Amino acid sequence: MHPILFHVGPFPVRAYGVMILIGFFLALRYAMSEARWMARTPLGGSSSSMPPVSDAQGGITPDHVFDMAIFGLVAGLIGTRVVYVALNWSAFAANPVEALKIWTGGLSFIGAPIFGFGYAWLYCRRHGLPFLKVADIGAPGFALAYTFGRLGCFLNGCCYGHACDLPWAVRFHADGASDALTVPSHPTQIYAAMMSIGIFVVLHRLRRRQHPDGAVWLTYLMLYAIYRFLNDFFRSGATSKVIAFGLTDGQLVAIVAFPVLAFLLTRLRNGEDAVPPWEGHRPR
User: Does the residue 284 lie in any domain?
Assistant: First the structure.
């Protein structure tokens, strides 16, 4: 593993943070380019028949995407820590101040879309933008950024799987101790990165086809639930705790979330609830 890439004076530059930033800026570039594409070719059609930008993309501009992404990144990072602390409260109950020490490690990715898209929803309400269109732009970017985040986990040596004897098994630093290595284990971070880049490709292709607003976003959440359910079989007992029925917390959440998301996507595609309750926005 290579958790520290180099030092700038006495300050270490950590691989995980660098990979997060690379993923974020690639996702931001993608989302801003999608906003421009929507303005040029609404519904994937010819730019010669292009309606006004306000009609083509609900007034969403690259500047809106940039503003949402910058503050959404902060919200997402806060969310990853909040969810991690909530799921591991017993470790912080005696000294809650420790929950603020994010640099000591301990993040749960599921908090990123919850808080990140939550901030985007508030932003859309404030600026009178259609949230579902914005979420459809952001979903592939989330998948792309997540790919690099998991590569950062691999370099950091965290979020690995349980023991295996496969040719590609890796020995990781156990509990961050440089002198203690795990037995050969599943490199689940690599599995996650591979599945996430596949999800990005699927979402990008879906965006190039005509679809109801919100379909790309809901598809992303469904695919993430499937990925998490499958990948946690390789992490259970190692870096994912088994909660009940032999399943991890991530798997239990995925089991509950998937049918709900599938129901919402089916209704959306069938044209029911043309303006879902979360879509309302207030022009200012």
Answer: no
Range of the domain at 157: 4-278
Query: What is the C-alpha to C-alpha distance for residues 234 and 188, in angstroms, rounded to an integer?
Result: 7
Q: How far apart are CA 1 and CA 20, in angstroms?
A: 17
117 in Cβ contact with 138 (< 8 Å): yes
Asked if residues 112 and 77 have their Cβ atoms less than 8 Å apart, the reply is yes
pTM of the model: 0.82
* pLDDT tens digits for range 21-62: 999 999 999 999 998 888 776 544 333 333 333 344 568 889
- Would you state the structure tokens that stand for residue 19, as one six-digit string? 């990979």
Query: On the CB side of 108, how many CA atoms lie within 13 Å of its CA?
Result: 21
Each residue's pLDDT tens digit, 194-205: 999 999 999 999
- The verdict on residue 20 lying in a domain is yes
If you ran DSSP here, which 8-state letter would residue 182 be given? P
Residue 14 lies in a domain: yes
Torsion of CA 145, 161, 187, 106, to 10 degrees: 40
- The total of structural domains in the chain comes to 1
